[in-house]
Every structure is written in C-alpha cells, then in structure tokens.
C-alpha cells in the first residue's frame, strides 16, 4: 500500500484529541455526497427529457426530411421523384404540403396547421400507436378523412367518425389588389374527421393531417410541395442514406435527419445541461471548503507527528501527499456515496415512478430519467479536480511543521 495513503487512512479513522475535526470531516463528506447525488439526479432528468423528446419527435417527424434551401416550396417533378427513389435505402417517399388554415366545426373555429400527405404516409406507421379515437384513414370510397390532434378535437368539440357535420377548412388566397369578388379571397373545402391522435401538446393542439389532393386543391399548390418525407429501409443507416441523398440532390435541397430537424432545441437542451453541471460543480466546490478547514486543523493537530516524520527522513513531497490523500478520502468517499445514492434514486424513479409529472398527460405519468455512464465519469473527474485544489493549500501548511520544536 502507498505510504502516504496508508498514513492518511490512519488519520481519517483514528480518534483525535479535538473531536470537532472528526465532525467537520464527516459533515464535509455528507455535503459532498448530497451534492454529488443531486448532480447525478439532475443530469439524469435532462437525459430523460432528451430521450422523451427524441421519442416524441421520432413518432411524429420523418426519419429524413427534404426541404428547399430557398423558399417555402419547390416544384416536385417525376425526374426528382425517380432520382430520390433510385437512392439505395429509400423505402417510402411521402409528398407533403403544409400550411396554416382557418378551420371551423359547427359553431367553433380556430387556426390550425394543415398537413397534406400522400396515401403512403400511413405505410410509414409513425402515428399508428398514437390514435386514441376513430379509425386511422385518409381516404375511403373516394371520401376524404382528416386525422386531427386531440387538442384540435377539444377546441372544436369534434366527434370523430360522425358523418353529420363536416370539418370546414378555409384558406386565404394571395389576392391581387383591386379585386372585389369575395369568392376570390379564400377557398373552402369540407372534410370528415376520421380519427384523433395524441402525441404531444404542441402537435395535438395544432396539426390536422389530410389527403394530399385535398390540400393541393385547397391551397392551390399544383405540383409544388413544401417537403418530402422518407422512411429508410429497415436495417440501413439513416446517416448513410441522408448522405447519399445530399450528394444526389445537390445544393438546392436540405436533407435533414430527425435530430437536424430540431437542431436548435437539442443544442439548447445540451447547453442547459452544461450550465447545470457547471453550477452544481461550483456548489460542490463551495461544499468542499469544509474539507479545507478540516485538513488545516488536522495539520495543526498532527504537527507533532509531522515533525517525527521529518525526523525519520520524510520529504515535503510525502507530507503534501499525505494531506492530499486525506482530502481525497473525505471527498471521494463522499462522492462514492453520492454516486451510489443518486444511482439508486434514479433507478427507483425508473422502476417505480416515485415522482409523477403532477398532471394528466398522454405522454407519460412519471418524470423521465436516464442514467449515463459519462455523467458519472465527468462528475467524478470534477470532484477529483476540486479535491486537488482544496487539499493543496493545507498540504503546504503541513510542511511548515518540520521543526524539532514541535516534538
């Protein structure tokens, strides 16, 4: 066993003349353990929220989305369709027309996002598990059906599956100045509400899926599309297919995977996680100041032992290592306890859901947590760094008691 660590361990477990040094050491260890556990829990909650967002967006958004670099829409031609379908890994190509529209149902009305999709959208099976009412369909017997969000259903008091009242969709046209014909100001189409989906509040309260030809006629888009959504062949890498599409389509189109579609959100989430880690690291540093006082008082209490070690030939380096090791025992001992405590609390939350969201939600009932090995590693490294800084000054003070007068 290392000599400095051996002596430091003896100092930690031995009874001292001044009992308050033991008390301060124990308090320091408890503070470090609590801070460490809190940091692990908070980081795990951030991981859980990130995982939740990825799962939500993964069920609503496509694996790969193609948009125009300039402008809101682009011309969709047969040659473009063939070029995309010729790329290895493209399984399903769905055409999309998306825009805002004024929606009315009986006496209620609102502004919603109309998303027209081609029939093969249902083959992607992205929202199959999110249907909470009605039958999932876009067209049946030449009749158009809408798939509406649950928030839209509540706002308009829609009865899905009912053929009595249609959903009236109005779209304001880009009218030339001087026009006095009111019929030219907007277009209107009726569609039956077929089913209701529930994914996430932002989607549920805004989106209505309709057949592509319905949206094309309502919005007068012709052969223009706002985006194309692609499902990748199972077993192939999404990033590989994305790169192939980018090379094929050139600089006129943006090819985005699911994470790139929400790049700003994920960057913000990671930035918040970083600031939380830094803030808690400062809190741990402040809590570790007690270690500084404990080691300083220990150096005063053990000045006779230090003088004896010097008389036996000990060097300043050995004395410094003894007190740095003592600080490591207090700090890393508390850290180990905190890591275990934080891990246990996260495991209990994952397994039993001890803390609920506190509200009714279709997404999940309990706060999501996800433990990552990197969080444990970075927390441990930050504690080691803090321990070295906190322990160095008391270790230097201990080297001053090298005189025989202390014997």
TrEMBL record:
Keyword Nucleotide-binding applies: no
Domain ABC3 transporter permease C-terminal as annotated: residue spans: 278-401
Keyword Transmembrane found: yes
Keywords assigned: Cell membrane, Membrane, Transmembrane, Transmembrane helix
Biological processes annotated in GO: lipoprotein localization to outer membrane
Membrane topology of this protein: Multi-pass membrane protein
Any one GO cellular component localisation term in the record: plasma membrane protein complex
Pfam families: FtsX, MacB_PCD
InterPro entries xrefs: ABC3_permease_C, Lipoprotein-release_system, MacB_PCD
Domain MacB-like periplasmic core: 25-246
UniProt main location, coarse: membrane
Signal peptide span: none
Subcellular compartments: Cell membrane
Transmembrane region(s): 20-46, 274-300, 321-350, 376-395
Stored PANTHER family: LIPOPROTEIN-RELEASING SYSTEM TRANSMEMBRANE PROTEIN LOLE (PTHR30489)
Similarity comment: family membership: Belongs to the ABC-4 integral membrane protein family. LolC/E subfamily.
Protein name: FtsX-like permease family protein
